[in-house]
């Protein structure tokens, strides 16, 4: 009898999971409160092939966003890196968050200052770490056009690429897969002189300048010790067949260290040197992107307001933090819910800490009190699963070995203005190892540390940066 019951239960479970692969309904409200996920879908096979998603509809100003290590990557040598080193990703992520805290904190303890000053010299001038930044786009630079894969970063302004001559006069370039841009063979290239106001403005944008010659020489250091320096220059940028910009300022980096594989960086920050700011005449300083749920899919990076979905919900508390340390977009988190139940987080926990949205930080960082509340509610809903130890900074990890599906509670963020954003089912957990995953959030050390809404939580959301209207928007299903 007991066996028969077990068999019936198993059949029922199989039938249920067949029917609800996307979510489990809360019968009372009819709202989805859990996501049921096929575990295999969270671990793309190393041999999976690229599934190109359509770019944003109704707009030509859109680029494919690729995971640099996925099968869609334009960098074939990077593609080969099929098994990511999670410890390294998480270490770089933590370094980026540390540098954000350093740059944006007003109340530094003596100990913080000490540990910072013991690191590299460059960081004193400027800098943020690039983190584990994984998303790239391909942009055409120069005449004739030279297609280059650039990491995109909402946390810095300067767009740069490695430039020939590398290795002359003691300069060096790190290995990159695509041929290095040669400014001497581009007819549209010109250096920016030291006498230009733009060169003068570099230090206020976190970039050191060196005017010992007549050309404006920039030095941008990142806290992790990587750096780029070279000529501040003007060049033609080709995004798509129709979207060509004649004289954008960028860094022609003849001396670059610490990066790998990629040709440079596309700066999407809020400062005047950034790509959206420089193309504001065309795109009105509006851009949007969608980060794909998995490496084998592409997302999009779209400039201008064409093609933005009608279902985008905006939060009005969207401010630009531009200082000599770095440029960030700030937003106001006001609450979090787990399985449709609001966490009881005291008023003031969020308002005591600035929050930013960042494409270059993977794991969302929360004020310690908010993280503790999230963890407690999440653990309660996950009590059926076997817990395990995970890599730092995680403390809430599960072993799903032997299971075909898992049910995880839906997590939603409330932003100022009553905007509620449901995270995608792939934006809740950080999966690593064989069938293991951790709650993909971490708590900050101090209550007033900057909170960061990271890229894991942004997956598949269409995120709209509408600078002129001072609003940030989110919509579900921006990409696969
Ligand atoms: C390298 O040095 C040579 C001679 O000293 C000079 O002509 C040339 O402009 C230098 N190149 C760069 C990139 O500084
Ligand atoms: C760069 O282009 C110039 C002009 O075409 C050429 O003389 C030079 O050899 C090129 N440098 C490299 C490193 O390819
Ligand atoms: C400043 O630029 C000159 C070449 O113009 C270079 O020799 C020098 O090393 C640079 N200084 C720094 C601190 O980068
Ligand atoms: C917010 O900061 C103030 C001043 O530091 C402090 O008194 C208050 O307890 C903090 N509120 C919360 C909820 O942490």
From TrEMBL:
<dbReference type="Pfam" id="PF14541">
    <property type="entry name" value="TAXi_C"/>
</dbReference>
<dbReference type="InterPro" id="IPR032799">
    <property type="entry name" value="TAXi_C"/>
</dbReference>
<feature type="compositionally biased region" description="Polar residues">
    <location>
        <begin position="73"/>
        <end position="83"/>
    </location>
</feature>
<dbReference type="InterPro" id="IPR033121">
    <property type="entry name" value="PEPTIDASE_A1"/>
</dbReference>
<dbReference type="InterPro" id="IPR001461">
    <property type="entry name" value="Aspartic_peptidase_A1"/>
</dbReference>
<feature type="region of interest" description="Disordered">
    <location>
        <begin position="61"/>
        <end position="83"/>
    </location>
</feature>
<dbReference type="InterPro" id="IPR032861">
    <property type="entry name" value="TAXi_N"/>
</dbReference>
<feature type="signal peptide">
    <location>
        <begin position="1"/>
        <end position="23"/>
    </location>
</feature>
<keyword id="KW-0732">Signal</keyword>
<protein>
    <recommendedName>
        <fullName>Peptidase A1 domain-containing protein</fullName>
    </recommendedName>
</protein>
<dbReference type="Pfam" id="PF14543">
    <property type="entry name" value="TAXi_N"/>
</dbReference>
<comment type="similarity">
    <text>Belongs to the peptidase A1 family.</text>
</comment>
<feature type="domain" description="Peptidase A1">
    <location>
        <begin position="135"/>
        <end position="475"/>
    </location>
</feature>
<dbReference type="InterPro" id="IPR021109">
    <property type="entry name" value="Peptidase_aspartic_dom_sf"/>
</dbReference>
